[in-house]
Amino acid sequence: MTPLTFRRYVLAASLVLLATTLAVSPAPSPDPALLARAKSAFTELEHGRVDRAALTASVNAEYPDAMLEKTKTFFGPLGAPVAWKQAKYGTEDGGRFASYLMTFADGRRFALLFGVDAQGKIDVMTFFPFS
Predict the structure, then answer these.
(1) How many domains would you assign to the chain?
(2) Could you tell me the pTM of the whole model?
(3) C-alpha to C-alpha distance for 18 and 97, rounded to whole angstroms
């Protein structure tokens, strides 16, 4: 298992505990720059676009054109999230990552695991339904 794969596994596993974290512990202070990047990246995905130069090779591979179209089809009709709540934040090897709870106008909620590497490229951008 590569370090990046392990990191994604650990971060994804942390989302399983997201509900408990939100209910029990106070949210860490948000990183405004990381939140702005996450919002911007999500807006691009909502419209079926992505700035490929802003992605690491592995994230770029996760979002081929067909996946961008599926993401647009799924999230586009929901509109922009009406609320973003940071649940977790961390740093590793110069990179930063956070998990966010996005709430949409219709009440649907999704967790977004988002992170950038030390060079500022997006190295994780994964969505999970949240109930």
Answers:
(1) 1
(2) 0.78
(3) 14
Structure tokens at 93: 């090897």
pLDDT digits (tens, 9 = 90+) for 28-55: 678 899 999 999 999 999 999 999 999 9
Which structural domain, as residue segments, surrounds residue 17?
3-130
CB 109 within 8 A of CB 116: no
Whichever domain contains 98, its CATH number is 3.10.450
* Tokens describing residue 6: 């392990």
The CA distance from 6 to 116, in Å, is 16
Rounded Cα distance between 55 and 67, Å, is 15
Give me the sheet containing 109-116, strands edge to edge.
83-92, 95-103, 109-116, 122-130
**Amino acid occupying residue 90:** G
